[in-house]
Each structure stands twice: as structure tokens, then as C-alpha cells.
Amino acid sequence: MESKRFRLSRTKTKNLECKFSDAMHEVGVEVRFDVQVVPKRGCFKLASGVLCGKKVLPKLNGKFYRMVVKWIILYGTVCWLVKNSHVQKMKVVEIRMLKWMCGHTRGDKIRNEDIRDKIGMAFVVDKMNEARLRWFGM
Fold it and tell me: Does pTM top 0.70 for this prediction?
């Protein structure tokens, strides 16, 4: 599967089933590329070497975040019924990730705006709203 800049490796690709509740799930469901079955994983490792590397520039971290992590956070939001509690949780996840990438903790008392400026990042909630409007054709 290829597009302009994205090439999906058939040998390295794995899938992770997300269980959001204890409700019954279908057994034996497989993800496939043509006839090849994509193996399941129990968990994924995040590319922490890139995101937390001391020698990696903050702007490069921001680019990786925008290209990978942001889309994981936003997956499926175009069709959710988004509540204020969801928005707040996404804001918290985003700022925790950005601070972690910069090597800061909550105890460092660094303002969220300063972290965003350092990495060059827009709010994930704004991106969610843009995606929702695009989905509805606006």
C-alpha cells in the first residue's frame, strides 16, 4: 500500500485490538493485506528514542509528533459524540506528551504555552475540529 510519502511495510506492520469495555468482542477477526494476515500485538512501543532523545531538536520532535502521535490521538474523533470531558482529556494527554518530549515534568513549573512555542505545536483540539468540519464537508 503506497501513497505520495507513506509506504506501509507488510512485514513490519502489526495490529493492536483496543478493548474499550468488557463487552463481548468477536473472536477470530483478522486484519489482512490482500491474502496476508497482519499479526496481532498485545502492546506497542512508542518511538521514545526519537521523542525523548537528548540530541534530537525540539522542532524535529514536534514534526514527529504531528506526523504520528497526533493522528493516533485523533483517530476516530470525526465520528465521536465529543463531550467536554473528552476534550479536556485530550488536552491533558497532549500537554503531558509535549512536556515529556522536552524532558520536563509538572514540577518544573513551565507554562503550557512555552512548551507549545518551543515545539511549534497547535492545539490537538483545534485539529480535531478541523477534521470534523472537513468530514462534514465544510
Answer: no
